[in-house]
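Action item from last meeting closed. Structure (206 res):
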């Protein structure tokens, strides 16, 4: 697939070929769903916890007599039946992370890139750089390109001034190429790749 490369000013800067092995697949929603679920499950903190019976600091003395009291034969006051007792089957601190094979993760990334290419949501720019790191100037460039909701992926290192300028613009994410992921690609309407990012992706999946 042949695509034009532009500058941030919207001027032509040549063209590039998107390899079909990465950008020309037929997107599969099941693979994308598995990868997104895997990513989000790893983000969950899993720190919710309630006190169980063993965590309650109450007397362990038997509540009443075993016989003759005319009531149930209760034991310690920390039982879940009593007010102030422990909770039965409450949440505990745990990891929500699931496993996903590396090959499936790599395939999901290809399908996410292919989905963007199929929808016409990919824009190629020559480089991600802005003069003096000014947010106002960068926002004007984005208006020329029609970028309202986008993920911008640069090479191995993102220019510090560009990253700081884009940080204050809503619905704009900036990542180095090694941080590209399925969830961030799908949650933004446009995917902006620099030439360095495109070369790195081709080398990664070669």
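Sequence:
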């Amino acid at each position: 697939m042949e695509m034009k490369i532009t500058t941030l000013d919207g001027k032509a800067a040549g063209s590039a070929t998107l390899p079909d092995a990465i950008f020309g697949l037929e997107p599969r929603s099941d693979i994308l769903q598995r990868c997104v679920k895997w990513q989000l499950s790893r983000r969950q903190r899993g720190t919710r916890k309630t006190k169980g019976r063993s965590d309650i600091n109450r007397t362990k003395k038997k509540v009443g007599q075993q016989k003759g009291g005319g009531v149930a034969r209760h034991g310690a006051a920390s039982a879940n039946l009593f007010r102030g007792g422990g909770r039965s089957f409450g949440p505990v601190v745990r990891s929500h992370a699931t496993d996903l094979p590396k090959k499936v993760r790599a395939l999901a990334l290809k399908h996410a890139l292919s989905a963007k290419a199929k929808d016409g949501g990919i824009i190629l720019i020559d480089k991600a750089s802005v003069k003096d790191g000014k947010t106002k100037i960068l926002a004007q460039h984005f208006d020329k390109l029609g970028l309202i909701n986008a993920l911008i992926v640069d090479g191995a290192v993102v220019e510090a001034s560009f990253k700081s300028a884009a940080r204050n613009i809503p619905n704009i994410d900036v990542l180095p190429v090694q941080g590209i992921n399925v969830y961030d690609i799908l949650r933004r309407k446009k995917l902006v790749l620099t030439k360095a990012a495109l070369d790195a992706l081709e080398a990664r999946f070669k």
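Note appended to the action item: The chain has two domains: 2-45+99-204, 50-90.
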